[in-house]
Design a protein that fits this description.
ten-stranded mixed β-sheet; 3 domains; Adenylosuccinate Synthetase, Chain A, domain 1; about 425 residues; Adenylosuccinate Synthetase, subunit A, domain 2; four-stranded mixed β-sheet; alpha/beta; binds inosinic acid
Length: about 425
């Protein structure tokens, strides 16, 4: 009966992979609902350390059926490679299913992502160049090719011919690069289709049936709320909705069936790619957080921008997602700091505001107003009980709860499954 959505509450990279891996122990189904292989979910478990880009993080549990929902854009080459790597490391992927409604990333999407970024010159968005934006643009333009099309070669050829003629005009006339060959792309995608066919199916029924059987369904978010194309720092956002609402659209699950929405917050903020981040630090504290937290992109390896926890952004994220609880990750990264800051408001053109502006030009003018708290300056990674955390760490967490009006369910103090403090049950 219960469905829990696990949502990135900031700019992505909050540690959703670990949280999903923990909760999936009891799940009947884990379903990814947005993004594509721009995401990189790190999981550390008895099989080893994994960086999953498309396969849901529940894949390590034999009882969990894993679904890549209709809201995900799929690069079949990346997915096949991920399946092969999991199999080589002893992980069974026969329970992996792919919605027949999911759009595919095609070679021209990847080419265009790079060409569009280069043409933006100094205004580049800093995308992952995985073809995500162009693939979602084609979905909206109804030019997309879907996984279901891979199962019907005639239809695939028909769809591909239509789209490729048009894409080749853009590639050759606008960007002056070589066109793509219809035969090559078609043959390649026919091979992908043959390989992925056993996994492709109508998946909304599977979710419905799992819930009717009383199983736990986990919705696995990708990226974070502040990268949402409507509510994030547009245009410095991704192209599909990482919000809880996106979880319904990206799976076919009705909003009335989602019982809990867990927001995953890092104990500080990071961002990768361009766009405003009011609490960004450019000093030795930022370097210290980056090194202690290994804050480098899982997908691109880019150094992440680091800064203090932004409670204004966090409150906004809590409101638009309707978080019923939170997981706070990477508390241990702050273990050595003598003082901590939390942004509690913004100074904008001489006034104080307590909301997250919708316009990036306005957000760029916002200066953070900080509240300071003492650091605990003692290791926390070995702690398993909330009461055993240093009082100053509990004070920090309590302040985050107060500022976001969101109760904390889980606290993560390291990569491993057991490095987790269960403060309050989610259900
Ligand atoms: P795209 O999703 O590749 O188009 O990139 C758009 C923006 O979203 C860029 O700033 C990326 O760095 C950011 N982004 C996309 N996926 C992730 C993610 O999984 N974690 C953090 N940032 C991401």
């Amino acid at each position: 009966m219960p469905a829990i959505a696990v949502i990135g509450a900031q700019w992505g990279d909050e540690g959703k992979g670990k949280v999903i891996d923990l909760l999936a122990e009891k799940a009947g189904v884990v379903v990814r609902f947005s993004g594509g292989d721009n995401a990189g979910h790190t999981v550390v478990n008895p099989y080893g350390e994994f960086r999953l880009h498309l396969v849901p993080c529940g894949i390590f549990y034999p009882q969990a059926v894993c679904i890549i929902g209709n809201g995900v854009v799929i690069n079949p080459a990346v997915l096949i490679d991920e399946i092969d790597q999991l199999n080589q490391r002893g992980v069974d992927t026969t329970r992996l299913f792919i919605s027949d409604r999911a759009n595919l990333i095609m070679p021209y999407h990847i080419l265009l992502d790079g060409l569009e970024e280069e043409s933006r010159a100094g205004k580049a968005l800093g995308t992952t160049r995985k073809g995500i934006g162009p693939a979602f643009a084609d979905k909206a333009a109804r030019l997309g090719i879907r996984t279901g099309d891979l199962l019907d070669k005639e239809r695939l050829l028909e769809r591909l011919r239509l789209t490729l003629d048009y894409k080749n005009i853009i590639l050759t006339k606008v960007y002056e690069v070589s066109p793509l060959s219809l035969d090559e792309v078609y043959n390649q995608y026919c091979q992908y289709g043959e390989r992925l066919a056993p996994h492709i199916r109508e998946t909304t029924i599977m979710l419905e049936e799992a819930l009717n059987r009383g199983e736990l369904v986990l919705l696995e978010g990708a990226q974070g709320a502040l990268l949402d194309p409507d509510f994030g720092t547009y245009p410095y956002t991704t192209s599909s909705s990482p919000l809880a609402g996106g979880g319904c659209l990206g799976t076919g699950l009705s909003p009335t069936r989602i019982n809990r929405i867990l927001g995953v917050f890092k104990a500080y903020c990071t961002r990768v790619g361009a766009g405003p981040m009011p609490t960004e630090l450019k000093d030795e504290t930022s370097d210290l957080i980056r090194e202690r937290g290994h804050e480098y992109g899982t997908t691109t390896g880019r150094p992440r921008r680091c800064g203090w926890f932004d409670a204004v952004a966090a409150r906004f994220s809590t409101r638009i997602n309707g978080f019923t609880g939170a997981a706070i990750t990477r508390i241990d990264v702050l273990d050595t700091l003598p003082r901590l800051k939390i942004c509690v408001g913004y100074k904008l053109d001489g006034h104080t505001i307590d909301y997250f502006p919708g316009n990036v030009a306005t957000l760029e003018r916002c200066q953070p107003i900080y509240e300071e708290l003492p650091g605990w300056q003692t290791p926390t990674s070995h702690i398993r009980q909330y009461e055993q955390l240093p009082p100053k760490a509990r004070q920090y967490i309590a302040r985050l709860e107060e500022l976001t009006s969101c109760p904390v369910n889980l606290i993560s103090i390291g990569k491993a499954r057991e490095q987790t403090i269960h403060k309050m049950p989610i259900l």
